Amino acid sequence: MTMQSEVAQQQDMQTESGGIRAVIRARRSRFPAEYTGARLDDDVVRQVLECANWAPTHKLTEPWRFAVYCDDALPRLFDQFARIYRETTPPERQVQAKLDKFAALPDKVSHVVALIMRRDPARRVPEIEEICAVACAVQNMHLALADFPGAGGYWSTGSGAFTPHMAEWLGLSADDRCLGFFYLGSVPAEPRSGRRGPVDRKIEWVRN
Ligand SMILES: Cc1cc2nc3c(=O)[nH]c(=O)nc-3n(C[C@H](O)[C@H](O)[C@H](O)COP(=O)(O)O)c2cc1C
């Protein structure tokens, strides 16, 4: 057996037995519709955020900040979402079901983490790099959840419609940004299966 095929075989075994590649492929966004309503331990959320804190960061600016909403803060947060929805959606396009959904969320969701990009005061790296670093932190959150089978979560931006308004509500300075919200809740163990187009259509090998 060549060295290369030995390595490939070891890697396949790791994938089968739950190595990091298997965790990456099995990761799924878990949405509030499937949350049971049971509250997660704050320590689970803290451990997930501890993993977020180990994301790569250019010049070690560590631009991620997290505001964790739980308990009595949840109705307050979702009231705010509903207010923004009412204020920013033309009346003829407002849907009552959407407002009802916000009202029901505090009974489903356990914690909501506001994902904040805190701009390096010295601006040592371009803003896009700070945003990328926070996105890496969010992926770490997703992957860390694999260690807590009864917990699930997803990143919500509401297609970016809410986030500038929420930045103001969160009291962020003009240089900082709200990049969305990570919802967390208790979930049944088995996630739905994922779907992606083949990677080979997304790769161009450049050899000379
Ligand atoms: C930056 C970002 C923003 C997202 N915002 C939303 C959102 O507002 N609403 C939503 O339902 N899903 C949102 N998602 C999650 C996607 O719906 C989800 O990743 C996609 O359906 C693929 O499913 P999977 O994560 O389980 O593979 C967001 C994902 C990313 C990366």
Give the helices and strands, then pairings.
Layout: H1 3-16, H2 20-26, H3 42-52, E1 64-70, H4 73-88, H5 96-104, E2 111-117, H6 127-144, E3 151-156, H7 163-169, E4 177-186
Antiparallel strand pairs: 1-2, 2-4, 3-4
Helix pairs in contact: 3-6, 4-5
Flavin mononucleotide binds next to strand 3.
Brief descriptors of the model:
208 residues, NADH Oxidase, four-stranded antiparallel sheet, binds flavin mononucleotide
CATH topology: NADH Oxidase
Unreliable spans are none
Helix % is: 25-40%
Order of helices and strands: HHHEHHEHEHE
Overall pLDDT confidence: 92
CATH-defined superfamily: NADH Oxidase
Question: Could you characterize what this model shows?
Answer:
By secondary structure, this protein is α+β, with helices and mostly antiparallel strands. The protein has a single domain (29-128, 141-188), classed as NADH Oxidase (3-Layer(aba) Sandwich), CATH 3.40.109. The chain has helices at 3-16, 20-26, 42-52, 73-88, 96-104, 127-144, 163-169, and strands at 64-70, 111-117, 151-156, 177-186. Strands 1-2-4-3 form a four-stranded antiparallel sheet, with helices on both faces. The mean pLDDT is 92. Flavin mononucleotide is lined by residues 28-29, 154-159, 180, 194.
